[in-house]
Design a protein that fits this description.
8 strands; TIM Barrel; A_deaminase_dom; Metal_Hydrolase; zinc; Adenosine deaminase domain-containing protein; 338 residues; alpha/beta; hydrolase
């Protein structure tokens, strides 16, 4: 099964750029941009993917500061984007939607950040033969003015790069900020036909979950604390839940893999896709996520193929791109022994 899953052309719909750098790629990035690294740096790399038992969600967000420093310059950000795309391609991912929050610092404006990522995507997607889309992210822990700027930039860049910028991601520490404060900015994005991928029900906040569901979304990130009525609503609207198994376990939002809500989603025949979230931070790959699902829930090859096809359907891709992806998947699976 593992060999089959490694070769299976896969579709990744929930991947944060900075969190998707694995430790080998972080070392490669650091060496190229900043020179030879010390033993202390190696220790930091090891701590980056180390999770103590009983880790909390807030602790996971603290880990990102380490990578953000490495991508604080144009050269660092550009190379990091290439490495992440390369690593997904190595895992036989044929389509990936990357998310990242444009950041402003002494080296770059948010506009320059977004332009750097876009340029890197255009170069890397051809080099590694992989389709790549970009969802600029609103970090709910930042001021509303920043969210408004990011939406304005996304709308502007989407007009010139419609094949790359296809939506907006709403994410960040779910214990910070209030969703309702960001609704005007998200409404503006929706008005300009940008898809919305909202981190929803990542923590137990019934009021906000109801606000998000009422507001509407194209895809639901995590959905860990959705109720059966929530599942039913998303099913009726054909809104998939982006399931990130390893992420949920290591961040402590799900007690153990056996009780992960993927099982309930499958039983309810609700829309769902398997994703990595932050493959670097959580030391996983999309192949690993599929294999974990087969080992835990007994998924068959046919079910893994069906999940992949489901991801194609829910991708923010064109009809033509979806058709080509389906052909790639079909071409691979028909060559595999029963």
């Amino acid at each position: 099964m593992l060999k089959f899953l490694r070769g299976l052309p896969k579709v990744e719909l929930h991947a944060h750029l900075n969190g998707s750098l694995n430790t080998d790629s972080i070392r490669e990035l650091a060496e190229k941009v900043y020179g030879a690294q010390t033993a202390d740096f190696s220790t930091l790399c090891e701590q980056f993917v180390k999770f103590e038992k009983g880790a909390k969600l807030d602790e996971c967000f603290e880990k990102f500061g380490f990578v953000h420093k490495l991508t604080a310059t144009k050269q660092g950000l550009e190379y990091a984007t290439e490495l992440v795309i390369r690593d997904f391609a190595k895992d036989h991912v044929i389509y990936v939607e990357l998310r990242t929050t444009p950041k402003a610092n002494e080296h770059m404006s948010r506009r320059a950040y977004l332009q750097t990522v876009l340029d890197a995507i255009k170069s890397a997607r051809d080099l590694y033969e992989i389709r790549v889309k970009l969802l600029p992210s609103i970090n709910r822990g930042e001021p509303i003015e920043v969210a408004e700027e990011i939406v304005a930039l996304a709308i502007e860049f989407a007009s010139t790069e419609p094949d790359i910028i296809v939506g907006i991601d709403f994410s960040g520490n779910p214990n910070q900020g209030k969703f309702k404060d960001f609704m005007p900015a998200l409404s503006e994005a929706k008005k300009h036909d940008l898809k919305l991928a909202l981190h929803c029900a990542e923590v137990d906040n019934p009021l906000e979950i109801r606000e998000m569901i009422k507001f509407g979304m194209s895809r639901c990130g995590h959905g860990t604390y959705l109720t059966e009525s929530g599942y039913e609503h998303l099913k009726e609207e054909n809104i998939p839940i982006e399931c990130c198994l390893t992420s949920n376990i290591k961040s402590g939002t799900v007690a153990n893999i056996g009780v992960h809500h993927l099982k309930q989603l499958m039983e309810a025949d609700a829309p769902k896709v398997l994703c990595t979230d932050d493959s670097g931070v959580f030391d996983t790959t999309l192949t690993d996520e599929f294999f974990l699902a087969t080992e835990t829930f007994g998924l068959t090859r046919s079910q893994c193929i069906a999940l992949t096809m489901e991801a194609v359907e829910h991708a923010f891709a064109t009809r033509e791109e979806k058709l080509l992806m389906k052909m790639q998947i079909y071409s691979y699976t028909r060559r595999q022994p029963l």
